[in-house]
């Protein structure tokens, strides 16, 4: 087993070395050492053996731990080497580093607060090795299961069920509208969720058929219940959908036929290269026809600001990954804060998704966020329970609960 | 577009819904045409439904997905659970599932236990042995949020917490589950680490509890594991006021099992367990999501009593005969 320890304190290196030898008593172990980041990087470049583990301290003079991590991320041969980060920095910094390494898709064993026992690092490392084979099986199995879903047949059989999640005005607590969330139902397991079926739908080129079905069922639901007319109806749409003229025609036509329904289309981020002109063209037509466009999952993709510049959005939605833990994750708090400020300056309504606790709702309200959506108010509601839910929510609101 | 839902491979399952439909239609003196109109009028899921499809459903040629069945059954004031628990064949399928559903990940067999009969008991928080059994059940639970060690707590604190324990010969514990009823809001705060376990079980609100929250569920064999799950699923199904099922767990085996059952993971958090990071998994599913899930529905119809003895060998025979 080959291990590299990069730490500027000799004492730490010695303790770790002794610990490792004790823990892996029978193995043949080579331990390499570096006393700062730059030395570590040099060693990594020169090294002609493969490594089974790199232990990195964060705070070092002459090249810190982050520099080493960045080097590993840009060197193909080190992309998969197991990394353990040790540091005496505070918990938030450790979480941040954890997050950075995950984004870089490196093989992280863990981020450990000092003092560290070698066993803390080696136990998960050896466990991952042992699990590696099973993990591959599971992955193959999962991939198999996903391709097992016959989306085309499910759509043909109309196995689409829509749920609705309320958007709440943070100042008045009143219901503003609902976002449509789709589910497919299969005969074996009940609900299938968008993260599983949307990739398949896109892959098979069924997205415009699918969006059409969603819009048709949602509008049906709104038309049947006059009570719902006062609430806006938000439906997800992809940039890909916007390149389909027939679909745009269908949406505009449906909206005209259902005059009382306030339709909002939430444009989700997609990585595909899109024909920008065609998309902008479609958006212009939708807006002219009184259909609002909302920018969904704000902040999740790098192209966000680009779009914000080009498209007159009525609303931006802050992604739930930033909102749900903003009370304990300072980075996320700052992102949400500046997004709200940006939206206010641009006179765009801002919706925070993923609001789960009263504490978060309180913070958002103080920051001047307009609308909140999340499990605090309600999980997605099946269409048949919608009216009951609204009744109950409104009566609780009146009775000041 | 004609509505032609997929048929189930197994005939017995189709029977339950077909019988319900025939029975309800005759009881309400409706023709197939009338029923079709009624469904189209009551729900936007059946916009293109026709009488031919109804006739197919009644004959069991094909039937709609459980989620759609739920929509129909609820129009007539019942729930999927109500109609499926009445069907002996379906209960047998559930019993067979307890036995047949082996997790795809190999688990080493328990050294001291081999499919012998075991006794399942609901332990009341007033019971003399409650504290001891609770501690014993949680010995291998590495969830820091369930750590009771450093708190001097008296039994009244635990009133509201349900502990179910499986004993094999010689009073050896071979399985357990730990759950309570609470409010969805409190459950969400617990999942976000804003309140602790005692605030969840000690939370006395005037509103009726709408959430069943599971903290721990374990069995030394897949058989016991499934049976322990069936206990709280049955509890949940029995009370209609429970609208959500939630889990807050650190046990990887249970997490894998729930994922295999296709329950969506709600949230993962990293907790600090004596300076070691440990993953905390949360699940949050609506009543319909639970009931429209074939495996969960099957487990939920298995009746459980305050104290009963289960013989896995008997279950196995049942499993093979079906």
UniProtKB/TrEMBL annotation, chain A:
Signal peptide: none annotated. The keyword Transmembrane helix does not apply. Pfam families: EAL, Response_reg. Keywords: Phosphoprotein. Residues 2-129 form the Response regulatory domain. PROSITE patterns: EAL, RESPONSE_REGULATORY. PANTHER family: CYCLIC DI-GMP PHOSPHODIESTERASE PDED-RELATED, CYCLIC DI-GMP PHOSPHODIESTERASE PDEF. Residues 144-394 form the EAL domain. InterPro entries: CheY-like_superfamily, Cyclic-di-GMP_PDE-like, EAL_dom, EAL_sf, Sig_transdc_resp-reg_receiver. It comes from Shewanella decolorationis S12. This is Cyclic diguanylate phosphodiesterase domain protein. Coiled coil: none annotated. The modification 4-aspartylphosphate is found at residue 57.
UniProtKB/TrEMBL annotation, chain B:
Transmembrane segments: none annotated. It comes from Shewanella decolorationis. InterPro entries: Cro/C1-type_HTH (IPR001387), Lambda_DNA-bd_dom_sf (IPR010982). It comes from the Bacteria. This is Helix-turn-helix domain-containing protein. One of its GO terms (molecular function) is DNA binding. Residues 53-83 form the HTH cro/C1-type domain.
């Amino acid at each position: 087993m080959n291990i590299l320890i990069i730490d500027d304190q000799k004492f730490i290196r010695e303790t770790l070395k002794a610990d490792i030898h004790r823990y892996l008593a029978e193995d043949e172990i080579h331990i390499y050492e570096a006393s700062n980041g730059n030395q570590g990087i040099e060693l990594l470049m020169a090294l002609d053996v493969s490594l089974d583990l790199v232990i990195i301290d964060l705070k070092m003079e002459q090249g810190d731990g982050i520099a080493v991590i960045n080097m590993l991320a840009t060197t193909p041969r080190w992309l998969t080497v197991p990394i353990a980060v040790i540091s005496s920095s505070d918990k938030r910094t450790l979480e941040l580093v954890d997050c950075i390494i995950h984004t870089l898709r490196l093989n992280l064993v863990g981020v450990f607060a000092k003092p560290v026992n070698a066993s803390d690092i080696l136990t998960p490392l050896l466990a991952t090795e042992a699990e590696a084979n099973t993990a591959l099986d599971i992955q193959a199995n999962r991939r198999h299961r996903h391709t097992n879903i016959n989306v085309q047949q499910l759509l043909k059989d109309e196995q689409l069920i829509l749920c609705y999640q309320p958007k709440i005005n943070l100042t008045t607590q009143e219901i503003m509208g609902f976002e449509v969330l789709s589910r497919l139902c299969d005969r074996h397991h009940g609900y299938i969720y968008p993260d599983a079926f949307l990739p398949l739908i896109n892959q098979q080129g069924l997205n415009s058929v699918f969006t059409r079905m969603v819009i048709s069922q949602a509008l049906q639901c709104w038309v049947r219940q006059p009570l719902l007319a006062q609430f806006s109806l938000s439906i997800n749409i992809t940039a890909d959908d916007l390149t389909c003229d027939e679909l745009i025609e269908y949406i505009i036509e449906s909206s005209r036929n259902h005059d009382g329904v306030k339709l909002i289309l939430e444009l989700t981020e997609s990585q595909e290269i899109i024909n920008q002109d065609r998309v902008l063209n479609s958006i212009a037509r939708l807006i002219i026809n009184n259909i609002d466009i909302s920018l969904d999952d704000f902040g999740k993709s790098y192209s966000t600001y680009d779009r914000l510049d080009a498209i007159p959005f009525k609303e931006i939605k802050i992604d739930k990954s930033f909102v749900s833990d903003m009370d304990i994750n300072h980075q996320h708090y700052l992102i949400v804060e500046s997004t709200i400020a940006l939206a206010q300056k641009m006179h765009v309504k801002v919706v925070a998704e993923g609001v789960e606790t009263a504490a978060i709702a309180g913070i958002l309200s103080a920051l001047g966020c307009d609308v909140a959506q999340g499990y605090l108010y309600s999980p997605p509601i099946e269409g048949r329970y919608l009216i009951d839910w609204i009744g109950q929510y409104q009566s609780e609101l009146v009775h000041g609960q | 577009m004609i509505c032609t839902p997929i048929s189930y491979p197994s005939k017995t399952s189709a029977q339950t819904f077909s019988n319900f439909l025939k029975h309800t239609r005759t009881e309400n003196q409706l023709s197939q045409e009338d029923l079709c109109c009624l469904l189209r009028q009551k729900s936007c899921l059946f916009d293109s439904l026709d009488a031919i499809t109804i006739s197919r459903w009644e004959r069991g040629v094909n039937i709609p997905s459980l989620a759609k069945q739920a929509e129909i059954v609820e129009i007539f004031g019942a729930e999927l659970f109500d109609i499926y628990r009445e069907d002996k064949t379906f209960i047998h399928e559930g019993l067979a599932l307890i036995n047949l559903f082996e997790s795809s990940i190999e688990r080493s067999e328990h050294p001291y236990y081999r499919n012998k009969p075991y006794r399942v008991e609901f332990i009341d928080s007033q019971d003399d042995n409650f504290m001891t059994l609770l501690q014993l059940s949680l010995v291998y639970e590495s969830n820091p949020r369930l750590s009771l060690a450093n708190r001097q707590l008296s039994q009244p604190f635990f009133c509201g917490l349900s502990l179910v324990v499986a004993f094999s010969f010689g009073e050896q514990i071979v399985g357990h589950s730990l759950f309570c009823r609470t409010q969805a809001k409190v459950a969400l705060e617990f999942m976000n680490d804003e309140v602790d376990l005692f605030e969840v079980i000690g939370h006395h609100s005037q509103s009726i509890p709408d959430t069943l929250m599971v903290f721990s569920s374990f069995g030394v064999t897949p058989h016991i594991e499934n049976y322990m799950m069936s206990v709280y699923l049955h509890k949940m199904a029995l009370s209609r006021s429970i609208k959500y099922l939630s889990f807050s767990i650190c046990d990887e085996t249970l997490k894998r099992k729930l994922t295999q059952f296709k329950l969506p993971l709600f949230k993962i958090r990293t907790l600090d367990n004596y300076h070691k990071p440990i993953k905390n998994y949360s699940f949050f599913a609506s009543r319909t999501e639970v009931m429209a899930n074939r495996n969960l529905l099957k487990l939920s119809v298995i009746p459980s009593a305050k104290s009963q003895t289960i013989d896995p060998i008997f279950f196995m025979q049942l499993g093979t005969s079906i």
